[in-house]
Design goal:
By secondary structure, this protein is an alpha+beta fold. 37% of the residues lie in helices and 19% in strands. It has 2 domains: 165 residues, Neutral Protease, domain 2 (Orthogonal Bundle), CATH 1.10.390.10; 85 residues, Immunoglobulin-like. Helix 4 crosses helix 5. The protein binds zinc ion.
């Protein structure tokens, strides 16, 4: 448990659990002790941020002595639970069974997707550090965080904040059909969730692979997008999000294998 300048932990903690709690409570010296968000209302702005940072600090600590996890499967399971509530639900009214997800894990996973899939580490880190400096010794509201990240990263991310932080909406990208046209292919992608950028990997029969990225704007006119894959090679397989970064709730429509 954290207080300004001091933290407490159980006296019998050892190893990974001692590292975990110490790392987490140190993080609180920044969020919310220096970047002074309101933890009684916007608890994700400190617990979620710390849980996100703990993933990277644990990977870095002592050459990865302890395993770092963000729990993708648990996030997907929560996002399919009919009793789930949005991250924005204040901690004094959220169902107790949901608090761990709304305050800690779901916001942490959102920042992870923002860093690793949407913006990339360089743009994310630049924006997140800038937010921390700009709002140190002040009291940021959620919109201050959202605005700062957008202004420094240089991208409209309203589609992400709105759905991931303020709703129970989900990510569900899929591939519906592949049709050969001459030596090229028409790939029909569908979006059954909220708008989300789509990354995919094409694998050819000669074993070579290539990755492509469709921006979130492809969903502005509807939930189906046909992409022309120009190639001289024979296509074998298309896989959405091959690195499994997103919390897509249905993995059964993420891979298409050509007969
Ligand atoms: Zn905490």
């Amino acid at each position: 448990m954290e207080y300004p300048g001091v933290s407490f932990c159980g006296y019998n903690r050892k190893g990974a659990r001692l590292w975990g709690v110490t790392d987490h409570e140190w993080g609180h010296m920044w969020y919310p002790m220096i970047v002074g968000s309101n933890e009684k209302k916007h608890v994700w702005m400190d617990e979620g941020f710390n849980s996100f940072i703990n993933y990277y600090s644990t990977k870095a600590f002592n050459n990865g002595e302890y395993p770092a996890r963000l729990g993708r499967e648990a996030i997907v399971a929560y996002n399919k639970n009919p009793n789930r509530e949005p991250i924005s639900t204040h901690p004094d009214v959220v169902q107790s069974a949901n608090l761990g997800m709304t305050a800690y894990y779901k916001p942490a996973y959102g920042l992870f997707m923002l860093r690793e899939y949407i913006l990339g580490p360089e743009r994310f880190d630049n924006a997140f550090k800038s937010y921390t400096h700009a709002w140190a010794y002040k009291h940021p509201q959620p919109n201050d965080f959202f605005n700062h990240m957008e202004n420094v990263a240089g991208e409209d991310l309203n589609w992400f904040w709105k759905h991931w932080f303020y709703s129970n909406d989900n990510i569900d990208l899929g591939i519906e059909a592949i049709d050969a046209v001459g030596s090229d292919y028409l790939l029909t992608f569908v979006n059954k969730g909220f708008p989300f950028p789509l990354k995919f990997e094409a694998t050819y029969e000669d074993g070579s692979k290539e990755q492509k990225e469709l921006p979130v704007e492809v969903w502005q006119r509807g939930n189906r997008w046909i992409f022309l894959l120009k190639t001289d090679k024979k296509l074998k397989q298309v896989q959405i999000d091959p690195d499994k970064i997103t919390a897509d709730i249905d993995s059964t429509n993420d891979v298409f294998i050509l007969e």
